Amino acid sequence: MPAVSAQQSSRIPVSLYNISSLVFLAVASNQLRGEIPVDVGDRLPNLLNFNFCINKFTGSIPWSLHNLTNIQSIRMAHNLLSGYVPSGLGNLPELQMYNIGYNQIKSSGDEGLNFLTSFINSSYLNFLAIDGNLLEGLIPESIGNLSGSLRSLYLGGNRIYGRIQASIRHLRSLALPNISYNYVSGEIPPEIGELKICKSCIWLQIRYRQLVSMDLSSNRLSGSIPKEIFSLSSLSATLNLSSNQLTGSLPQEIKGLENVAAVDFSHNHLSGSIPDTIGSWKSLEKLFMENNMFSGVIPATLGDVKGLEILDLSSNQISGIIPNNLENLQALHLLNLSFNDLEGLLPKEGAFINLSRIHVEGNSKLCLDLTCWNNQHRKRTSTAIYIVIASIATVAVCSVIAVLLCVRKRKGKIMPRAYSIKLQHPTITYRELRKATGSFDTGNLIGKGSFGSVYKGELGDGTVVAVKVLDIEKYGSWKSFLAECEALKNGSKRRLDGGLLNILERLNVAIDVACAVDYLHHDCEIPVVHCDLKPSNVLFDKDMTAKVGDFGLAKLLAERGADQQPITCTGGLRGSIGYIPPAFPASIEQVVDPELFTGKSATHECLITILGVGLSCSVDSPDRRTNMRESLLKLKTARDTLLKPPLDHKPDLDLEAGIGDSSM
User: Fold this and answer.
1) Cβ–Cβ < 8 Å for 531, 539
2) Helix, strand or coil, per DSSP, at residue 613
3) Spatial separation of the C-alpha atoms in residues 285 and 86, rounded to whole Å
4) How far apart are the C-alpha atoms of 455 and 174, rounded to whole Å?
5) CA neighbor of 526 nearest in space, from 559, 561, 572, 573
């Protein structure tokens, strides 16, 4: 009988389940609701393919499907199914695909993931996906006994813990293993390097006989990366080990990944220098190595990777100059070298012509032009001269003091201390400041400017202070310091409670940003999607008017397709490769000052409106989200409410007070 398909937002007619001769039932990618009958397998005993993916079905997985001994494909991914995985999986010898990903399936008691063992009897199984659920437990060692034809294994986005079993090496046909976003710990087994190519699977097409992608990101993996991983020359898509606790350095053997397109080692504890052999990754398009402890210099061989589009080495300890060879990266549209210890001149040609693609902030010794470079050299020379002069002067002064003391001692005329000068502020030693700020720990950093950093500290008597650490090597730092002292003398000082702006000022900033985004979305001839809107990309003019900047990742909204839905390019999506889990705050109250929820005032009404805008802009379904123009109108209404409170209410929040530890 031909396939049955539905294109409507309703429920499946009950009569459909009475067609006992049905062999192929596919209703994927619709808005179908309701529960799948638990006895659907008994009603449709001849089913070979069952595809209910991407709908809104509720209820549990029908146990009767596991009684269909001839069924080849069971697919129910991206629904709202709950409950447990029913027994009977061992009764499916002809099964080739089993996909229940992205539902709300849980593990049954102490069963954990042991139901995976039942798939051993499915010798033709090539696709197994249970990702994006609520399953928890250990990966069973028997996973290595699954079908030799298994090429896609998706376990990501669950609550799996324990170690990666070494027996996984027996899955020689595995092409797409994904265990990301779990709680897997321990070291990566070196046996994983045996997943190179299934030499005995001659009957499979070439692309199905080799490892294509591996995603172990966002777990708790520790230890060093086994060198065997770098011998997986068949990797042609991605290698993602980001957001773990990996340590150690990268070996010279990394050259084995010559065919990989994207590598993500970010957010680990990797150290050492980046090997020069990284230039052998000729197929590389994206390389993420940020937030590690890499040191040494940037390998000039990276300039030989002509197809490189994204290179992120930010927040490491890399030093030296930026090699001019990187100018050859003509395909580059994002280079992030910020927060390292780079120095010298920024290259000017090739990939460096468009500075909007380049991020180098946080490198105090790096110069953007020749003038800065000359000043830096002149400054170093001047500093050396100053040191010599200061040393000579110090010796001379000490000699004079010594002579005077000797003379006074001989005459026995030691002057008595008439009085002590009472200072307005006590003298604080460097040792006390170092102790107060935790050795200038970054956790106490409350601000960073062009000429230095400001730390929050607590003295021995409990006094909270702000400590400005000046970078005297920067031209103009002394003048800036004197100006800041004058400002402090006049009473202008940074608050240490995390708030500089009152609620009205914050609301004005939000309105300014919303105006800018509204213009991009609705008033441009071709709508623009910023793709990187965050506090660090919001700038202020002298009147504290917020401006949206940094359009390095902005995308144009393409013409509407035949389905009248706007089409956008997602190439600017930044983050971990692969599964991206949803994240919701457990409670709005956790991020708002509790005092704001007491009383009934204009401020209270204003905050309710603001929170409502935030919630309406973050609804799961994009179709149900409030557009920016409507959000802007609501924010302006909130501001009007704040400025014109009701006559029968007293303001219960000082507009001049900042809001706790919240950030804009």
Assistant:
1) no
2) helix
3) 43
4) 51
5) 559
58-71 pLDDT per residue, tens: 999 999 999 999 99
The structure's pTM equals 0.58
- Domain 503-643 annotated CATH 3.90.850.10: no
pLDDT at position 578 over 80: no
Tell me, what's the pLDDT at 655?
A: 39
Contact of 219 with 180, CB cutoff 8 Å: yes
In this predicted model, which residue has the larger pLDDT, 637 or 590? 637
- Secondary structure (DSSP) of 215-258: E--SSEEEEPPPGGGGG-TT--SEEE--SSEE-S---GGGGG-T
**C-alpha to C-alpha distance for 576 and 378, rounded to whole angstroms:** 44
> By the 8 A CB rule, do 66 and 95 touch?
no
Would you list which residues are annotated within the binding site for ATP?
A: 468
Q: Which residues are annotated as a binding site?
A: 468
Which amino acid, residue 606? C
What one-letter code names the amino acid at 650?
K
Angle (nearest 5°) at CA 98 between 191 and 23: 150
At residue 367, the 3 state secondary structure works out as strand
CA distances from 636 to 38, 353, 512, 614 (A): 52, 40, 10, 14
Residue 428 pLDDT level (bands cut at 50, 70, 90): confident
CATH 3.90.190.20 is right for the domain spanning 247-383? no
Q: Where do the structural domains in the chain lie, given as residue ranges?
A: 247-383, 447-497, 503-643
Between 499 and 580, name the one with better pLDDT: 499
Name the packing angle between helices 628-643 and 602-616 (round to 10°): 170
Pick from 118, 41, 119, 42: nearest CA to 76: 41
C-alpha distances out from residue 26 to 7, 56, 103, 288, Å: 11, 14, 18, 40
Q: State how far the alpha carbon of 460 is from the alpha carbons of 445, 456, 577, in Å.
A: 19, 14, 47
Contact 193, 231 (CB under 8 A): yes
Longest distance between any two alpha carbons in the chain, whole Å: 122
Assess contact for 359 and 336: CB atoms under 8 A: yes
Integer Cα distance of 337 and 314 in angstroms: 5
In tens, the pLDDT along 187-209 reads 999 998 888 654 444 333 334 34
Q: How many residues does the chain have?
A: 664
- Rounded to 10 deg, the angle between the 503-518 and 602-616 helix axes is 30
Instruction: Encode pLDDT of 336-354 as tens digits.
Output: 999 999 999 999 888 898 8
The predicted-structure confidence for 81-90, as pLDDT tens digits, reads as follows 999 999 999 9
The residue from 39, 276, 532, 593 that is catalytic is: 532
Mean pLDDT lowest among 3-17, 35-49, 316-330:
3-17
Rounded Cα distance, 446 and 495, in Å: 10
Query: Catalytic: 532?
Result: yes
266 token code pair: 């970010």
Q: How many CB atoms are located within 10 Å of the residue 562 CB?
A: 5
- CA 65/CA 499 separation, integer angstroms: 59
Please give the distance of CA 638 from its chain centroid, rounded to a whole number: 32
- CA nearest 26: which of 53, 60, 57? 53
